[in-house]
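Co-fold these.
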Amino acid sequence: MAAARVRNGGRPTLEEVAARAGVGRGTASRVINGSPRVSEATREAVEAAVAELGYVPNRAARALAGNRTDAIALVVPEPETRFFAEPYFSAIVRGVGAALADTDMQLLLTLAGNDRERRRLAQYLTAHRVDGVLLVAVHADDPLPELLEQLGMPCVISGARHANEPLASVDSDNFDGARAAVEHLITRGRRSVATITGRLEVYGAQRRLDGYRAALAAAGLPPDERLIAPADFTEEGGARAMRELLARRPHLDAVFAASDVMAAGARQVLREADRRIPEDVALIGFDDSVVARHMHPALTSVRQPIEEMGRRMAQLLLEEIAGRVGEERPTVVLPTELVVRDSS
Amino acid sequence: MAAARVRNGGRPTLEEVAARAGVGRGTASRVINGSPRVSEATREAVEAAVAELGYVPNRAARALAGNRTDAIALVVPEPETRFFAEPYFSAIVRGVGAALADTDMQLLLTLAGNDRERRRLAQYLTAHRVDGVLLVAVHADDPLPELLEQLGMPCVISGARHANEPLASVDSDNFDGARAAVEHLITRGRRSVATITGRLEVYGAQRRLDGYRAALAAAGLPPDERLIAPADFTEEGGARAMRELLARRPHLDAVFAASDVMAAGARQVLREADRRIPEDVALIGFDDSVVARHMHPALTSVRQPIEEMGRRMAQLLLEEIAGRVGEERPTVVLPTELVVRDSS
DNA sequence: CAGTGTATTGGGAGCGCTCCCAAGACCGGG
DNA sequence: CCCGGTCTTGGGAGCGCTCCCAATACACTG
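Predicted complex below.
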């Protein structure tokens, strides 16, 4: 048997709190929402009543009356397995959760399927009345951000999509992470440093390549396009790129891969080619994932502050919802950290 | 400037849909909720109006009037990093998301902190009026499940907490996964098979140990308690246990670790002791995580269908919310799969 | 043809809250 | 002592929806 339906799930209502405190409903509401226009004595009376009854506001009623929901959505593009995979997703969620812990904002998780679904999603997000949206791993050609913008829905994305990102965004410093990694290789005496890039349509991958170039230039090493092999963030792609590099420049002595997973693919090929790591070839990855820690030899890698990124995204969104003065959209870039292990 | 506040965010209301279709509000509601007591002609008229106006029901209003929310919460115990880590969390979420995709249920993510917060959480969950709760990685002594039960809140947990789990639960077949792993070792000629267990207060860890014992018994191998080393699911714990095992039984020729991470710790110790894997000692893990695939040699491991577990949890919860006839709580146990790689 | 049912419909009465207006309490200046 | 202001307060009017009751329309049955 289902339990008999009770008003408000058997919970006290604002009206009851007000009655108990001997005040009107409006006054009780004012206290609960922290309005300053309440006398001290009244405030205390209401707070006591709240505590005694264990009152918690009914969100649905609040949302309906107040035209807001105190909820934000985290939209995850489902097919984008790269992002769904370790370590991004859980770290982002943890950061967002931490930022929301003190608020009474709720976090709604939405898995967006294909592009058609994405279009409908915008409609749903407005209809379901979330106060804002966190978009993770959007492609440059994803229609969702613009749709949300048109609907006037506050929105923060992770990772700028290009140099002048119009939306509020939080990103790690891909350029400087790559630069520091390559600088580290050069400092340790490597002279022929190759790189395996991610998909260059992804702005972050492009920035990592820029950082690689900048480090070489800063060290006075001549650029060599044949030391640059494009890949796609996958292990197979990394292996393929490594084979190309070995064929083109057999005497390279270091490789900077734009992701740990690609570094894993490269390591496999290097092993098959009997190149010792790090004696013959130094190897650095990007992400500092579980893979890096458990690779043999343990992989030097660039750590992104992903949890912190989640936290900042949430903070930015909350500010935007609260109504930032509409200057240009803020772009937060967080520093990376080079974690040196045995592979370099 | 914030956009001027508009009724219902500028979206059409049920009233408008009804007017457009030339019917009453009640009738429109009936069509939208799929009531059978509507004539065919009326249904079509309302559906046309819905399509033309792009009507989407206002969730808050629905929740308030209907005393339900069409939302469920996924409660993640935050300090439990083991569970938050790869691969569980994202896989569970993916499964839950898939199960919810066809419904119009929303998924709420709640990170529960310490035990005190957990107590308050139960209150919040009822006040926030979710229709049900998905609990992952609950400890045997977590107060939350009982609290939810008392409040009459539908609830499904991942992983039974003990042999007679009173709550609806979804679990992988820990017993048979372990049994199959050890059987595989024995089949390949290993005769002195050790095991590194997880924390035995965790029911799943206990079951894996049971499976280990059952496999030995089935093969007619004598039980040897000194081949069993307890650990705690961590890498350091796995290493420590492995050292103990080597000291106690130097001639062991196989180890079944109850998690990949512990297997990684064990591998480190085996390497330091100059035992070759798999020539001298075969090694098997549990979870089939990224760690297993990237370990050297690649680790044979027991794969749990985690995404499927998420899916089943959501399905079970939906059934419970819909009002299953209250027989005993269902317990779903899903089969595991032994992924054989190079370490065995 | 009256009587009884069945299928379909409209709309009133809320759900618990926020917003806001008007009323009361109180203060000080003229 | 009266008047205009400020500070508090109560409670009406919704928010958009679901639930449910009563009304209507129609089809039978006896």
